[in-house]
Amino acid sequence: MRMLVPVQFEFIKKLDDTSYCKDWLHIEPYTGFIKPGEKCDIKLEVYVDKKTACKLNSGEDKLYDILVLHLEGGKDIFITITEALLLLLESTAEPLIPYNLHNVCLSAATNYLQCKQIVMQLPETRRTVFLYISSFLQELLSHTQDNELDAKTLATLFGSIFLRDPPRSRDDCHQRSRATQITFDKKKAAFVYHFLVNDQSDFILGR
Questions:
Q1: What is the domain range of residue 195?
Q2: In sequence order, which residues have a C-beta less than 8 Å from that of residue 12 and are 6 or more positions away?
Q3: Which part of the chain is the Rho-GAP domain (predicted)?
Q4: What tens digit of pLDDT does each residue of 20-33 get?
Q5: CB 150 within 8 A of CB 74
Protein backbone atom coordinates (compact mmCIF):
# COMPACT_ATOMS: atom_id res chain seq x y z
CA MET A 1 0.00 0.00 0.00
CA ARG A 2 1.39 3.38 -1.03
CA MET A 3 1.32 6.04 1.68
CA LEU A 4 1.03 9.76 1.03
CA VAL A 5 3.22 11.92 3.23
CA PRO A 6 3.66 15.68 3.58
CA VAL A 7 6.73 17.24 2.00
CA GLN A 8 8.93 20.15 2.99
CA PHE A 9 10.57 21.91 0.05
CA GLU A 10 13.13 24.67 -0.26
CA PHE A 11 15.20 26.22 -3.04
CA ILE A 12 18.77 25.95 -1.80
CA LYS A 13 22.09 27.54 -2.70
CA LYS A 14 24.45 25.81 -5.07
CA LEU A 15 28.05 25.25 -4.05
CA ASP A 16 29.99 28.55 -3.71
CA ASP A 17 26.87 30.64 -4.45
CA THR A 18 25.71 33.29 -1.99
CA SER A 19 22.01 32.94 -2.83
CA TYR A 20 19.65 30.29 -4.17
CA CYS A 21 19.02 32.35 -7.33
CA LYS A 22 20.38 35.30 -9.32
CA ASP A 23 19.56 38.91 -8.40
CA TRP A 24 17.26 39.29 -11.41
CA LEU A 25 15.10 36.34 -10.33
CA HIS A 26 12.54 36.28 -7.52
CA ILE A 27 10.89 33.07 -6.30
CA GLU A 28 7.76 33.11 -4.16
CA PRO A 29 7.55 31.07 -2.03
CA TYR A 30 11.11 29.74 -1.98
CA THR A 31 10.29 27.34 0.86
CA GLY A 32 7.11 25.66 2.05
CA PHE A 33 5.25 22.66 3.41
CA ILE A 34 2.72 20.69 1.35
CA LYS A 35 0.23 18.29 2.92
CA PRO A 36 -1.13 15.24 1.06
CA GLY A 37 -3.82 16.30 -1.40
CA GLU A 38 -2.70 19.94 -1.39
CA LYS A 39 -0.76 21.86 -4.02
CA CYS A 40 1.55 24.85 -4.00
CA ASP A 41 1.92 27.30 -6.88
CA ILE A 42 5.42 28.76 -7.13
CA LYS A 43 5.90 32.07 -8.94
CA LEU A 44 9.18 32.80 -10.73
CA GLU A 45 9.52 36.48 -11.58
CA VAL A 46 12.32 37.83 -13.78
CA TYR A 47 13.09 41.49 -13.19
CA VAL A 48 15.86 43.29 -15.04
CA ASP A 49 16.60 46.93 -14.19
CA LYS A 50 19.32 49.21 -15.56
CA LYS A 51 21.88 47.99 -13.01
CA THR A 52 21.27 44.36 -13.92
CA ALA A 53 21.16 45.22 -17.63
CA CYS A 54 24.65 46.73 -17.46
CA LYS A 55 26.02 43.52 -15.94
CA LEU A 56 24.30 41.43 -18.60
CA ASN A 57 25.50 43.57 -21.48
CA SER A 58 29.07 43.69 -20.18
CA GLY A 59 29.19 39.92 -19.78
CA GLU A 60 29.60 40.16 -15.99
CA ASP A 61 26.35 38.24 -15.58
CA LYS A 62 24.18 36.03 -17.79
CA LEU A 63 20.43 35.62 -18.08
CA TYR A 64 20.84 31.98 -17.11
CA ASP A 65 20.53 30.12 -13.85
CA ILE A 66 19.99 26.63 -12.49
CA LEU A 67 17.74 26.26 -9.47
CA VAL A 68 18.09 23.47 -6.92
CA LEU A 69 14.79 22.41 -5.35
CA HIS A 70 15.48 20.41 -2.20
CA LEU A 71 12.84 17.99 -0.92
CA GLU A 72 13.36 16.96 2.69
CA GLY A 73 13.95 13.24 2.76
CA GLY A 74 14.01 13.08 -1.03
CA LYS A 75 16.14 13.92 -4.05
CA ASP A 76 17.23 17.39 -5.09
CA ILE A 77 15.60 18.54 -8.33
CA PHE A 78 17.58 20.71 -10.75
CA ILE A 79 15.54 23.22 -12.75
CA THR A 80 16.90 25.36 -15.59
CA ILE A 81 15.36 28.78 -16.05
CA THR A 82 15.46 28.25 -19.82
CA GLU A 83 13.06 25.30 -19.68
CA ALA A 84 10.75 27.15 -17.30
CA LEU A 85 10.80 30.15 -19.61
CA LEU A 86 9.85 28.08 -22.66
CA LEU A 87 6.96 26.48 -20.80
CA LEU A 88 5.76 29.90 -19.69
CA LEU A 89 5.91 31.42 -23.17
CA GLU A 90 4.05 28.48 -24.69
CA SER A 91 1.30 28.49 -22.05
CA THR A 92 0.23 32.15 -22.19
CA ALA A 93 -3.20 33.00 -23.59
CA GLU A 94 -1.58 35.14 -26.28
CA PRO A 95 1.99 34.97 -27.63
CA LEU A 96 4.62 37.54 -26.72
CA ILE A 97 3.90 39.37 -29.98
CA PRO A 98 0.10 39.83 -30.04
CA TYR A 99 -1.95 38.17 -32.76
CA ASN A 100 -3.02 41.51 -34.24
CA LEU A 101 0.62 42.28 -35.17
CA HIS A 102 1.47 38.95 -36.79
CA ASN A 103 0.66 39.94 -40.36
CA VAL A 104 2.69 43.13 -40.01
CA CYS A 105 5.64 41.17 -38.62
CA LEU A 106 5.55 38.63 -41.43
CA SER A 107 5.35 41.36 -44.07
CA ALA A 108 8.38 43.12 -42.56
CA ALA A 109 10.39 39.95 -41.95
CA THR A 110 13.08 40.75 -44.54
CA ASN A 111 13.68 44.30 -43.28
CA TYR A 112 15.49 44.66 -39.94
CA LEU A 113 14.63 48.34 -39.43
CA GLN A 114 10.93 47.68 -39.93
CA CYS A 115 11.08 44.72 -37.55
CA LYS A 116 12.80 46.92 -34.98
CA GLN A 117 10.10 49.57 -35.31
CA ILE A 118 7.41 46.95 -34.71
CA VAL A 119 9.11 45.76 -31.52
CA MET A 120 9.43 49.37 -30.35
CA GLN A 121 5.64 49.68 -30.61
CA LEU A 122 4.99 46.71 -28.34
CA PRO A 123 3.68 47.41 -24.82
CA GLU A 124 6.61 48.04 -22.49
CA THR A 125 6.43 44.71 -20.67
CA ARG A 126 6.24 42.67 -23.87
CA ARG A 127 9.00 44.71 -25.49
CA THR A 128 11.30 44.27 -22.48
CA VAL A 129 10.73 40.51 -22.33
CA PHE A 130 11.29 40.15 -26.08
CA LEU A 131 14.56 42.08 -26.00
CA TYR A 132 16.00 40.35 -22.96
CA ILE A 133 15.17 36.91 -24.29
CA SER A 134 16.87 37.93 -27.53
CA SER A 135 19.88 39.07 -25.49
CA PHE A 136 19.91 35.73 -23.68
CA LEU A 137 19.83 33.87 -27.00
CA GLN A 138 22.74 35.98 -28.26
CA GLU A 139 24.65 34.91 -25.17
CA LEU A 140 23.95 31.28 -26.03
CA LEU A 141 25.21 31.88 -29.56
CA SER A 142 28.49 33.23 -28.20
CA HIS A 143 29.20 29.69 -26.96
CA THR A 144 28.37 27.76 -30.12
CA GLN A 145 31.52 25.65 -29.84
CA ASP A 146 30.19 24.22 -26.58
CA ASN A 147 26.44 24.03 -27.21
CA GLU A 148 26.47 23.55 -31.03
CA LEU A 149 23.57 25.97 -31.45
CA ASP A 150 23.21 28.29 -34.42
CA ALA A 151 21.17 31.43 -35.06
CA LYS A 152 18.91 29.86 -37.69
CA THR A 153 17.91 27.00 -35.40
CA LEU A 154 17.11 29.32 -32.49
CA ALA A 155 15.27 31.73 -34.79
CA THR A 156 13.07 28.90 -36.07
CA LEU A 157 12.31 27.67 -32.55
CA PHE A 158 11.57 31.06 -31.03
CA GLY A 159 9.81 32.33 -34.14
CA SER A 160 7.16 29.67 -33.54
CA ILE A 161 6.92 30.80 -29.89
CA PHE A 162 7.05 34.60 -30.22
CA LEU A 163 4.65 34.45 -33.19
CA ARG A 164 2.64 31.44 -32.12
CA ASP A 165 -0.29 30.65 -34.40
CA PRO A 166 -3.74 31.35 -32.95
CA PRO A 167 -5.97 28.36 -32.16
CA ARG A 168 -7.61 27.24 -35.38
CA SER A 169 -10.61 25.11 -36.13
CA ARG A 170 -10.21 21.86 -38.06
CA ASP A 171 -11.56 23.55 -41.21
CA ASP A 172 -8.94 26.30 -40.93
CA CYS A 173 -6.20 23.69 -40.65
CA HIS A 174 -7.37 22.01 -43.85
CA GLN A 175 -7.58 25.32 -45.72
CA ARG A 176 -3.97 26.28 -44.94
CA SER A 177 -1.73 24.18 -47.13
CA ARG A 178 1.56 22.76 -45.92
CA ALA A 179 3.43 24.99 -48.37
CA THR A 180 1.71 28.07 -46.95
CA GLN A 181 2.53 27.03 -43.38
CA ILE A 182 6.19 26.51 -44.31
CA THR A 183 6.28 30.02 -45.81
CA PHE A 184 4.76 31.48 -42.64
CA ASP A 185 7.27 29.62 -40.46
CA LYS A 186 10.20 30.87 -42.53
CA LYS A 187 9.01 34.47 -42.17
CA LYS A 188 8.61 34.04 -38.41
CA ALA A 189 12.17 32.74 -38.19
CA ALA A 190 13.44 35.59 -40.37
CA PHE A 191 11.79 38.14 -38.07
CA VAL A 192 13.45 36.72 -34.95
CA TYR A 193 16.78 36.12 -36.72
CA HIS A 194 17.37 39.88 -37.00
CA PHE A 195 17.41 40.18 -33.20
CA LEU A 196 19.90 37.35 -32.79
CA VAL A 197 22.58 38.64 -35.17
CA ASN A 198 22.36 42.41 -34.58
CA ASP A 199 23.58 44.35 -31.55
CA GLN A 200 20.60 45.27 -29.33
CA SER A 201 22.45 46.92 -26.42
CA ASP A 202 21.38 50.48 -27.27
CA PHE A 203 17.86 49.22 -27.92
CA ILE A 204 17.67 47.50 -24.52
CA LEU A 205 19.05 50.44 -22.57
CA GLY A 206 16.73 52.83 -24.36
CA ARG A 207 19.45 55.10 -25.65
A1: 94-205
A2: 20, 68, 69, 70, 76
A3: 1-204
A4: 888 888 889 999 99
A5: no
